Amino acid sequence: MKKLIIVVLLGVMAIPSMAQEWRVGATAGVNVNAPSGPYYMGQTGFNVGVKAELGLSHTTKGWFMDFGALLSSHGWKGIGYYDNITETSMKWEATPYYLNIPVHVGYKFRCSDNLKLFASAGPYVNIGLFGKETMTATLGEVTTKTIASSNVFADKAQERFDWGLGFRVGAELYDHWQLSVGYDWGMKNIFKGQDVRNRSLSISCSYVF
């Protein structure tokens, strides 16, 4: 207990100095999701949320930690299935939405007074929130579209938790605007019994205070 109290006190004492290194802001961008596996195609989606940045100048100048909490869509389409008995072709597609929480460590290179280049990498966690799955069936010239799942996570059609590794590269302008390109490499199967993982390219614009 004494050790815990000492650790807490040291943390509280460090807050004023660390607060000077914190920056927060908003971010938004476009996702291009391309799940692994031969039977799935990707879709274009979006990401939007808040981010925080902690400068690590007390260790080495230029290093920083980057955190985020984003609503992020990772849509997919199945390539289709043909039933020889009913002569019906079927296709599935879904747009799952996650709470995306990345934690990156990065480094900034100052090129001029108003321009910095940066790169960062680290793990992320996705927590499934909601998302609808639909099925389109075609028999001859007749096409019908039905809802296969109103919530792919609640209905257990898709795994709720996902995690992986990601990296970002970009530029910071005038110490506030950030433009970045990133890639997230999913490490967990998003369906039970199938080797399918999220792969997502993102382009984002952020403003930090």
Please outline what is shown here.
The protein has one helix spanning 2-19; strands spanning 22-33, 40-55, 63-73, 76-78, 81-83, 88-94, 97-112, 115-130, 133-139, 142-149, 161-173, 177-186, 199-208. The chain is mainly beta and 209 residues long.
Strand order of the largest sheet: 1-2-3-7-8-11-12-13
Poorly predicted segments: 1-19
Major sheet, described briefly? 8 strands, antiparallel, barrel
Task: Compute the number of helices.
Answer: 1
Order of helices and strands: HEEEEEEEEEEEEE
Mass-distribution shape: elongated
Terminal CA distance: 38 Å
Radius of gyration: 21 Å
CATH architecture: Beta Barrel
Q: Which structural class do the helices and strands define? A: mainly beta
Strand content: over 45%
Number of domains: 1
Task: Give the beta-strand count.
Answer: 13
Helix content: under 10%
What does this structure look like?
- The protein is mainly beta.
- The protein is 9% helix and 63% strand.
- The longest helix has 18 residues, at 2-19.
What attributes does this structure have?
9% helix; mainly beta; Porin; 13 strands; eight-stranded antiparallel beta barrel; disordered N terminus; 209 residues
Task: Outline the secondary-structure elements.
Blueprint: H1 2-19, E1 22-33, E2 40-55, E3 63-73, E4 76-78, E5 81-83, E6 88-94, E7 97-112, E8 115-130, E9 133-139, E10 142-149, E11 161-173, E12 177-186, E13 199-208
Antiparallel strand pairs: 1-2, 1-13, 2-3, 2-4, 3-7, 4-6, 5-6, 6-9, 7-8, 8-11, 9-10, 11-12, 12-13
